[in-house]
Amino acid sequence: MKALIIDDERLARNELRRLLENFPKIEVVGEAANADEAIKMVNELRPDLLFLDIQMPGKNGFELLEALEDDTIPEVIFTTAYDEYALKAFEYNALDYILKPIDLPRLSEAVHRVFEELDRKHDHDSISERKMLGENDQVFIKDGEKCWFVKLGKVRLFESMGNYVRLHFDDQKPLVLKSLNALEERLDPISFFRANRKHIINLQWIEKIEPWFSGGLLVTLRGSGEKIEISRRQAIRFKDMLSL
Asked: Which stretches make up the HTH LytTR-type domain (predicted)?
């Protein structure tokens, strides 16, 4: 597994690299002192894992992830001296959040979690290819004690909530234990569109489209009135896909 260490403190990078020598399956392929350096290295080296500080000069760790192309985002372990960003970190699907100073047992726990996630993805990929799910397919959903058997065409919005996805249909909003990326792989792109990092929208439920900041778009969903931003990058795809 190729890893990249991103931290503005040289001593912190050196110490983490030293600790990672205890894990021969992880190869540190580079270090970056700021987000701009890191973005270039991610695009060139295509690492599998980032050890990412949050507070850095220029872009912070969250802004770095937002600047990456969706298909180049590696797994992420945040390494920081601040505990107040933990909730936000998991909104970015981080595998772990380690507070400095980092010790070997805590790092070992995080690395174990990384390999568990890799095994899970490998098992998923090893399953025979499943058919793409379209708006006419029905799916079983269980959230706590409640169960639904719902046609996907009724689901207007999929919303990432860390390691879960919230489905919006009728007046229901159940959670399922699945990442938005994994769900996107199963959904038919003719009907379902990845609007941004947190949302997939059902194109049949769009009622209104408006220009938005920085070249993005703002869509209003029919019935619910929910407003979802289509990011600038995705807005380009959206226009290409739906234009004559």
From this structure: 141-244
